[in-house]
Amino acid sequence: MAEDFDGALAAIAARDRCQRHAESETEHHLVLDVLCILGVVALGVVVSLVGKAVEKL
Known about the structure:
By secondary structure, the protein is mostly helical.
């Protein structure tokens, strides 16, 4: 009986660790997505500024 209880506790602990890891990965991917979007916006601004500079030539 005690072994079943210990096994259940171990399974719950493993599930909790897995869930925390998944949440951490989700936050990590969210940060990367935001950085990617900011990079694309910055690239668009640079291309726009270069285009305006070329028009003036």
